[in-house]
UniProtKB/TrEMBL annotation:
Keywords: Signal. It comes from Helicobacter magdeburgensis. Residues 1-20 form the signal peptide. This is SH3 domain-containing protein. It comes from the Bacteria.
């Protein structure tokens, strides 16, 4: 035990010495790798005892084939050295230290002699989770890489020939997908936020399916940095039954805003949709969810709706009537809730809630968000085209910028009395 402790102390001192000392980059560029070999040999020795810390990792990345970083290759400003890097340095690094670089998914521009199966995993983790930088530039991201490196694996699927293959491939036009699963579910606490974003078109309307309704998960666990801001996949009826009763009425009525909950989940894996014509973020697969408490309840105010850029605001409605009033009804042809004065049309705000209640096989946006039904794109019911339009009505106000939904009303107006916004 004492011997191991002495070795670790020695390695720490050695590490401190290494990174206090600057390599002579000019000697490297002239093809003299003597000092570099000694330098990397010691770094390799450290890596056999433990994972490299972030500073040690960043030192190793200095020799990577990456543009735009402060490194030896430095492709962003020193193209003249590219030929030396490819012809001399890269082959040397691949032959002598290829496994060290491969352990951290660091590209060298040259094949290493021994390709271990786990190296493919490390490369894909770097590729899918580093914002196309080829290396990790923050400590949190690097710590998450180490956690995934030791605890994750490729998800598999059955191909057309009935063979089990890795679910990790690149498609046409820069598209592709790569799914990673944990060797056993990982418990994590965080904040699950349900969003209804009126600055986005409703599902099925835009060419790319960026839904106005989406959920995000965020945790303070640095090991799970790659999970942050992912969309939790709620694909079981039990999730819907648990969460639907917790959502406030305004959210179910189709209004914009956000609701956040403190939750504990068991994470199975993650699918980072980072490279596609219509990328939609990361999808986090779970096996269990426990809601601790509600943290936020933020329905949009009138100001929030009015701040949406006009070209994006497909929800905005205008009155279209020569009458003095347009009736806002409790339900189609139902009781009159209020008479909206047409003379004050510039002082009111009307929003089309049918847009947010676009139905697919009878299931509205917020229900699908909670996993009530995974409907196909075909077979939708166009609620937006119905005769009566469900609206959110903000009446004239002396202080429109501070007007909240407590001053607004939800009701129905016949579409003949409205000017509808153009769909994108």
């Amino acid at each position: 035990m004492q011997k191991i402790q002495k070795i670790l102390v020695f390695l720490c001192l050695l590490s401190a010495f290494l990174f206090a000392k600057e390599l002579d980059v000019n000697r490297i560029k002239q093809g003299d790798f003597t000092e570099l070999k000694a330098y990397l040999t010691q770094l390799k020795s450290i890596s056999k005892q433990r994972d490299l810390n972030f500073n040690e990792y960043r030192t190793l990345t200095r020799f990577a084939l990456v543009d735009g970083i402060d490194g030896v290759y430095n492709g962003g400003s020193n193209r003249g050295f590219a030929s030396v890097y490819y012809s001399k340095l890269s082959p040397f690094l691949a032959k002598e230290f290829g496994d060290l670089f491969a352990e951290y998914g660091i590209p060298l521009g040259n094949d290493i002699e021994e390709i271990k199966p786990e190296y493919y995993l490390y490369n894909e983790l770097v590729f899918w989770f580093n914002d196309s930088k080829q290396i990790f530039t923050t400590k949190k991201a690097y710590e998450s890489f180490l956690f995934f490196k030791h605890n994750a694996a490729f998800a598999t699927k059955i191909d057309e020939e009935g063979q089990e293959i890795r679910n990790c491939a690149y498609g046409d036009a820069g598209g592709g997908e790569c799914e990673f699963i944990f060797k056993k579910p990982v418990k994590a606490k965080g904040i699950l936020t349900f969003n209804a974003d009126f600055s986005s078109p409703p599902n099925e309307v835009d060419a790319c399916d960026y839904p106005a309704y989406f959920s995000t998960f965020k945790t303070q666990d640095s090991r799970l940095e790659f999970i942050n801001d992912g969309h939790i996949v709620l694909d079981k009826r039990e999730y819907y039954d648990k969460l639907a009763q917790l959502l406030p009425k305004w959210y179910k009525d189709g209004l914009g805003g956000s609701v956040g909950y403190e939750v504990e989940v068991e994470i199975v894996g993650i699918m980072p949709w980072s490279f596609s014509a219509c990328a939609a973020g990361k999808y986090v697969t779970i096996t269990n969810i426990k809601v601790e408490k509600k943290l936020q309840d933020n329905p949009n105010t009138r100001k929030d709706y009015e701040n949406i850029e006009s070209e994006l605001n497909v929800y905005r409605l205008k009155l279209n009537s020569t009458d003095r009033y347009v009736n806002l009804r409790e339900k189609p042809n139902g009781k009159i809730l209020e008479q909206i004065p047409t003379a004050k049309s510039d002082a009111i705000l009307l929003l089309n809630l049918n847009m947010s209640l676009w139905e697919v096989k009878g299931v509205s946006e917020w229900q699908r968000q909670l996993g009530f039904e995974r409907a196909e794109f075909s077979g939708y019911k166009e609620v937006m085209g119905q005769e009566w339009i469900k609206v959110l009505y903000f009446p004239p106000s002396l202080s429109p910028k501070t007007q909240t939904i407590t001053e607004a009303k939800i009701g129905y107006i016949h579409k003949s009395q409205l000017v509808m916004g153009d769909l994108p």
